[in-house]
Amino acid sequence: MYIFGLVLFAISFGLIGFGVFTTLVRSEKKKGRISLVVGTVLLITTFVMYTYFPSASGEDQITVESVAVTEAENGAYRCSVTETDYNGLTYHYEAATEKDAEAFCDQFEVGKEYTISFEYDLDTEEYTLVELKGQE
To answer: Which of 9, 35, 90, 96 is packed most tightly, with the most Cβ within 10 A?
Structure first.
């Protein structure tokens, strides 16, 4: 996803550069304007792409260090699972009710290993716990 975004940035800047050059030189005005529009649309699409797609997702094996249920800023409840590896990285699971968050947190025991599915959100810079795959 990261490399794809860089390629889209390069193409869009190339099209914008070509459009500006042909507009200033006053040759092939139609192609220049089309490349300006297409380059601008690609640039905006690339910026928006990073907002709606997670930059990293996958599965990982973690050893649980701590589990806690907290109330989030938006009124939802959060199950936070901190692992011992990677200097105490914390994964979050958001639920609408406190009961749902506690039910999700009850699946984890401190000191045990689990396989989880996660996503990393570039905007909030947080790891979201998608699901618990299994216990080792």
So the answer is: 35
